[in-house]
Amino acid sequence: MSFRRAGRLAATVVPVLLWMGCGQVYRPVVIPCSAGGGIPGCPVETAPTPSNFHAVFGITANTLNYPGGAMQIDVSGDTIIGETPNYDPSKPNLGENPTHAAISPNDSRVFVASASSVSGGIDVVSSFTPVFQSRIGSGLGAVATIPVPSLVNQTSSISAISESGNLVTVTLSAPLSNVVAGYAITIAGLVIPNCSVTATPPCNPLAYNGTFPILTINGNTITYTDNTASGLPPLSGGTAAVPPQPVFLNSTQNNVMYVANYNSNSVSAINTASNVVSNSAVVGAHPVSLAEMPNGLKIYVANQGDNTVTSLNTTADLSQNPVTGFSGVNPVWVVARGDSQKIYVLTQGDGQLVTIDTATDTVTSSLPVGGGVVSGVGANFIFYDPILNRLYVTNPVSGTVSVFSDTGGANDTPILLAPPLAIPGLSPTSTPACAGCSPVIPVSVTALLDGSRFYVASYQTASSCPDPIVGSSFPCVIPELTVFDANTLTLKYPSTPILTLLGAVAANQFAAPPVLACGPIPLVPGALYTPTATRFRMFTVAAEDSSHVYVSMCDAGAIADIITNGGNVNNSGGNVPADSLVMDLLTPPAASSGTALQNPIFLLDGQ
């Protein structure tokens, strides 16, 4: 089994699952979605179409202070063949607040970045081995957790700490570097003497410890506000450290995985043989995306905090190369061309697609994503299609997708193949009608590797839900998918341009109540991502064999499974047509809640 390389990585899937209560452990077995149903998420009208083995992974976020989860399904056989176990505090788990995932180039392990310090945990990169093809489900390999440490010059012992009216003042034995007000700081190792939760009155001996945003920093002195504690005594001891907050993973090498650390302004190299961080390098402020060249010589990092791109050599010291001519605003995504000669950077703040020549690290072009027809400001995601040599760019602000050839322009730069394509949405006159819906918000795009179609995942919101299943007394989110013909760049099905994605949960359902934790960063120009926000409210990915497209829907707690080639036999003996929703794969209950669904946030495809 080989999985799509990390450079072409797109999201994970969290399919059908046996429902579990708190403390129960799911024993991994093969669960086919066979005709007749009876399994949550399996429709009664659809039978599996076994063929070659293919796999899709799903990453979910959990309730606060609990780790996320992962699952692997066999695409062709519609079977679940592995998942991370239900939460057990005595064993390694995926970290809290998972943000991104990647697969090693030799297909041997899946890695998940978790900015756990956001909710008071420890920042980690977790990994597990996938399930290989078998007639018996063996389950995913045991989870290994790899702590991502703070940089040496971003940790210090505490000489004094005191609190007054919730304002905490900390004096450090040494100043912290590369950090300013607004960054997070973790206080650890402090124990208040003569304090106990069983005392009268009770007190928390660890009340100083936690992760907090820095209010001020001046030399060796920092302040922050802790609204959960008051009346704490002055102390000394313990440590203050800048938590890394890993948010993005990528590698084209088998022996190393690279992770971008948002809060410590760094990139770390993880030795995949020893499961330790072997080296780290300081980059620009708030890195949010990175891409290694396919030839493994350099890594490029998009730093949204200071509007820069960093070029690192993949050597033991991760030395830097100067990047010349970059002037974009809020770079948010970076991808590498398949021949390693070009890097493409998307800038959200000014809507540019920037090309960097990797031989000289010089910007050779900067093209407006909107092509002068609409504003490109707000563009948020690039999908690189190695088959058609294209770049697909979604823009949730303008409601469009732009399609570029990755060559053809001056200096071997991209060219826009057509004016940005408008994404249709439900309207007051559509079926179903949507009188109070927001404009459509496209957020992710994928393409079939057979070169025939590409798919745009989008959503709309409504303060008074038009879906009677949710009810007009409630707000809702309406997840949608639009299919385009890759050859003509036109809607594949103009008479029914929008595929609603929840009809397999309940007949005719097309909306879901909003989940607060799924809310993305504000859709306004210049809005910056932070690890406290959900980056992928929806995400879409095509299976490696082009037979299915999957769409994760954070608010719905489900993954939509769309068959692209048709042929599944229904109970009436007919065939399910191509580009049809065949099932909604429900996520498991969140650990120790037993009721609330986990929220799928990212998808990874493989074969």
Structural description of this entry:
By secondary structure, the chain is an all-beta fold. Among the domains are: 152-241, Elongation Factor Tu (Ef-tu), domain 3 (Beta Barrel); 247-409, Methylamine Dehydrogenase, Chain H (7 Propeller), CATH 2.130.10. It contains no helices and 41 strands. The strands form 9 sheets. Strands 9-10-13-12-11-14 form a 6-stranded antiparallel β-barrel. A hairpin with a 5-residue loop joins strand 37 (538-542) and strand 38. It is globular. The relative contact order is 0.14. The model is unreliable at 1-51 (pLDDT under 50).
Note poorly predicted spans: 1-51
Strand order of the largest sheet: 9-10-13-12-11-14
Tally of helical runs: 0
What does the average pLDDT come to? 85
Shape: globular
Q: What CATH architecture label of the domain at 247-409 applies?
A: 7 Propeller
Name of the CATH homologous superfamily of the domain at 247-409 = YVTN repeat-like/Quinoprotein amine dehydrogenase
Q: Residue share in helices?
A: under 10%
What's the story with the biggest beta sheet? 6 strands, antiparallel, barrel
At CATH level 3, the topology of the domain at 247-409 is Methylamine Dehydrogenase, Chain H
What is the structural class? mainly beta
How many β strands by DSSP? Answer: 41
Roughly how many Å is the radius of gyration? 24 Å
Q: Termini distance?
A: 6 Å
Assess the beta-strand content as a share of residues: 35-45%
Q: Look at the structure and give the CATH class of the domain at 247-409.
A: Mainly Beta
